[in-house]
């Protein structure tokens, strides 16, 4: 979560990002004519591009301004006075003030995006503002529950706090990922899959990959795989059979089985732990560098001081901006391989291509462009997915399947 960068580098980053705004992709994929993107889709894509730039600028420049202008030190003294100089409480007060300032600065951007959304509900301004205020509850709760931990570690082990934080994060993240489908089920009331034909098709595909017993529930807003170990399960979209044909459902489930079979949620756990390790180490090193050279100017010489809060925030956001393209690229790779796995397992090329093509129209674009790919695209573009569905069928020419060995290995392991 953490890294430090100069203001000049941040401005250069945004100038570079602006060059990509509005760039879109091709209109052909694998011989399938893709309908032109609607004007509303192009306009909405541009809105998302610009709002990302503005909101990221706020998240980078607000803590930097607090750090360099002296206002961060003033807010720190105010927080210390209100907390009667209790350090943890001072950090909480500072964090709450910061979140309120950030909320106010981002509010016009959020409202502009709300007004620009073509399918927005006819909410009153008051109802919209109420929803925005409710969105503050989660970060406030997170600050109240979690901020004490890194502060305690910094005070107890100033030299190795980042290592201790990583060690504590790993089991916490493990418990959260294991428990995720359980509290999701409690909140949404998931139920076992009752469609016998669909269950039989899923079990057959799963058995082909050495997984004869698979947990399948229905009731989600989309189809995905959640949980780890004993809680790992496929959660099907509640209206899946209404919005997809039986052949498309087979491909969709086969796609999700890749996440299940290859343990992609374990990769998520590894990414979380690695992120905390690298981010906290960078914050520690950045803080030491800043304190040694500019400690007098910012009136702060130790990371546990509440005056260091803007430095931590800037480091966190700067690192997120830097690593986001790489993280998104990795996620797109995971999803691209899930499409490949799904095609190999189901052989539903025509159904998959029709499914992806059916998502076009409205606000969906065949290829939203380079900037969207760098900043928010978690999946390959629909043009890429259609192209793969059209062109990837190695079994027709007798070529080896990429994931055949995985399934055979699982099946042979099961038979032992």
TrEMBL record:
Q: Which PANTHER family match?
A: CAAX PRENYL PROTEASE 1
- Peptidase M48 domain mapped to chain residues: 192-391
Q: Which residues form the CAAX prenyl protease 1 N-terminal domain?
A: 53-183
**Would the keyword Chloroplast turn up in this protein's UniProt record?**
no
Q: Which residues cross the membrane?
A: 47-68, 88-105, 125-149, 161-183, 268-287, 308-330
Gene Ontology terms: biological process: proteolysis
The record describes how the cofactor is bound as:
Binds 1 zinc ion per subunit.
What's this protein's family per the entry? Belongs to the peptidase M48 family.
Q: Which Pfam families match?
A: Peptidase_M48, Peptidase_M48_N
Q: What is this protein called?
A: Peptidase M48 domain-containing protein
Arranged from A to Z, the UniProt key words for this protein are: Hydrolase, Membrane, Metal-binding, Metalloprotease, Protease, Signal, Transmembrane, Transmembrane helix, Zinc
- Record's InterPro entries? Peptidase_M48, Peptidase_M48_N
Alphabetically, the GO molecular function entries are: metal ion binding; metalloendopeptidase activity
Needed cofactors: Zn(2+)
Does Transmembrane appear among the keywords? yes
Query: Which residues are the signal sequence here?
Result: 1-29
